[in-house]
Specification:
heterodimer; A: 564 residues; alpha/beta; Rossmann fold; 6-stranded parallel beta sheet; 20 strands; B: 206 residues; alpha+beta; Alpha-Beta Plaits; 2 domains; 5-stranded antiparallel beta sheet; 4-stranded antiparallel beta sheet; 5 helices; elongated
Amino acid sequence: MKLNGGQMICQALLNEGVDTIFGIPGGAIMPLYQTLPQYPGLRHILVRHEQGASMAADGYGRVTGKVGVCFATSGPGATNLVTGLAGAMMDSVPLVAITGQVTREAIGTDAFQEADVTGVTLPVIKHNFLVMSVEELPRVMKEAFYLARTGRPGPVLVDVPKDIFVEAAEFEYPETVELPGYPPQQNGDPEAIKQAAELIAQSKRPVIMAGHGIIISGAYKELQELAEKGQFPVVTTLLGIGSFKSNHVLNIGLPGMHGSAYASHTINESDLLIALGMRFDDRVTSKVSLFAPNAKVIHVDIDPAELGKNVRPTVPIVGDVKHVLKQLMPLVEKADRREWLSYIDELQRTHPLWREEGDTLRPQDVIQQISDSTEGKAIIATGVGQHQMWAAQLYKFTEYNSFITSGGLGSMGYETPSAMGAQVGMPDRVVWTIAGDGGFQMTLMELATMVENQIPVKIALINNNSLGMVRQWQDIFYDHDYVATLYTGNPDFVKLAEAYGMRGIKVTRKDEVGPAVEQAMKWSGPVLVDFHVDQMENIYPFIPPGTGVGQIVEDPRLIMKSVP
Amino acid sequence: MTQKPKKLQQHTVVALVYDKPGVLNRVVSMVRRRAFNIGSLAVSHSETPGLSRMTFVIEGDDTVQEQVTKQLRKLVDVVKVSDLKGANAVYRELSLVRVSATAATRSEIIQIVEIFRANIVDVGHDSLIIEITGDEEKLESFVTLLKPFGVLEIMRSGRLAMVRGVSPEPNANGSSENPDSTLANDVQWAREDSSQAKPTPLLPPG
C-alpha cells in the first residue's frame, strides 16, 4: 500500500491504538493536518498554546496508561512543547510528540520557523528522531511508540520535514522493533530477591516507600498484598499517591519536605526501606546523609541508573515492580508487627498535621470539602506550589492513579491542560483541577479549549493573590521580604471564566465553600470556582532544604527555633 | 599555569554505538548535563560496519563511574557498554610531538626516540615531528625528557583500550575464556548487561 508521509503517520497512530491528539497546526506541519480528515478515528483537540498540547498529552497518558500524543509545527510550535516534554520525562509519562520541520533542503539555513528541535529536546526527553526519508517513517513511528511506553516510560519526539509529509512510499508497518541497545528488564534477579526476602525477615521496623512505578506497572494488588502479608506500613511519594488506597490502615501517607511529620519520622526510625518504583528525589530524602540513618535499603526500579544514584541500596533489584513483587511475595513470611505499627500510631497521634481553626477561608477547607463531596473518587490535577502540597496532604484518594501532578519538573501551569487531557482520557470520571492563581495564569488560555470541546473539568482556584510557596519561603528565609510575590492586579476570574463561556462561582467565606463545591459538581460543563483564601496561610510541616527530618518544622510557632 | 591538581581517579569505559548522525552529540550531551568529567574520548569505526566504538576515560570516584556506565546504557543508540574496571586490558595512546631540533641537539633527540621506540615522521630545518605510541605514563615521560629541547606542539589521540585474550593468571573456574566476562566487570549489584541484549542484528534495519 502506497501512502504519503502524512498518511503514514495517521495510520501508524491508529495502529498504535491512538484516538486523541492535542495540537496546533502551522506551516511546516500543515500537510499532516490536511490528512487528518481521512482518518476519522483520530480526534484532534485544538489547544490554544503548544505547552497545553504537551501537558494535555501528559495528563492523558498518566490516567490512561496509553501513550499521549501531541502535534506542533516547526520552530516556535515545537519549542513551546518543551516544558511539557521535560515534565513528562521527569515523571516517566508515555508521550509521543510529532513536530513539523522545515523542508530537508532548508534544514540548516536558518529558514523561517526553523529551530533545531531534536537538538533542543535531546537533553530533556527519552529519545528523538529526525526523519530524513519517507521510507524510514513506519519504522521510526513503531520505535517511537515502543520506546515511549516500555521500560521506564517517557516522551519521544519525531521531527518530520514538511516535504516528507507529501512524499509517498510503500507503507508496511513493522510488527517488531530491533533495538539491541534498549533491553528493558522485566524480572528481577532471583538471587537479589532472595537477599531482599532475608533482609525483610530480619527487619523489625520495615517501611514500604511506594512510588510512581507501582502505578505505571499496575502493581496495586501486589503492593496491597505484600503490605498486608508482611504488615508493612506504606508511605507514598508525591507521584506514588494513588498507588495505595488512602484509607488503608497501613497507609501513612506522604513523607518529605511537606509530607506529614509522622511519615518522615517513620522513615527516619526504620531499619529497612523497601523502595518500590521510586527514585529518592531530594524532596523525599532532604539531606541524603541524614536520611534514614539506620535503615538498610531494598530498591526496586526498572531503570538501573536510579539504583545507587541518590541513595545506595543494600539490595538493588532491576525489574518491573509488578514482576518483582510477584517473585518476592512467596518468600515473604506473614509477620506480626504490632509493636512497630502501634509505635507509628503513636507518632500519628503526637504529630498530627497542623491546622489552625479560624473564621477566615483557608485553602485546606477547600480541599477538604472537595475530598468529602467527591468521596475521594475524583481525578485531581494540580499545579505546583502550596495548593499542590495541600492537595497531596488532604485529598483522601479512594481510587488508584488519580493524582495528576507535576512532581519532578514542578511546572506551574500544568494544572489546567493536564486536567483537560485527563478528562478527555477518562470521560466518565469527575476531574477537578486544584490550581493556584499563579500557575493558573500561565495556561488559562486552555479554558477556551475546554469550552469549545465541552471538556467538563472543574477548576478550584486557590486564589491567594500571590505566588504562595515563594512568599512562604520569603517568610521563613528572607524575613517577610515579599519581593515579586504579591499580585495587585489579578483579574476577576469569575468574569474571565464567563468571558470564555463557562460557569464562574466566587467564594470569599468559609460557609460558602460547601454549597459552591456542590453547585460545581452539579454543573455539567466546565466550571471555575474562585476561592479567595487567606493570603498568608503557609503549608506545614516543612523540612528546610539541605537539612533532615530532625529540622522539621511542624507548625509556624516552631519556625524561630527550628530553622537554622 | 596554576598548580597541578591532585590526580583524579580514572576509569576506562568502552561503548559500542550506532554510527549515525547525532550519536556523538547524544553521548556528549548526556555527559555534560550530568556533570561528568571526561579525561579523554576516542571515537572510531569498529570491526562491524555501522557501529562505532568509543573509549572514555572517566574522572571521578566509583559512584561516578558506575553512573556514567548506566547512563550510557540508557541511550538508545548505545548498543553495549563495557566497564574495564579490574579488567586485564591493553591501553594505548598515540601522540604526535613537534620538538625543536638544531644540528647540535638532533642526535641526542634521536637517541631518546630510539629508547622509547618512537618514530620520527617529519624532519624540518629546526624541528622534528615524532610519533609515539604507548600508555599515558610512557607518553608523559617521553615528553618530559624532550622538554629541555623545546616542545612546540603536542597532539594526543586519547586512550584506546582492549581486553586481552588471555588472563595472565587464569583462575580455577576458567572465567578468562570469555573476554566479555572480564570486560563487563560491572558493579555486581545492578548488572543488566549485553548478555540480555540480543546479540544480532546490531544494525538498524533499513
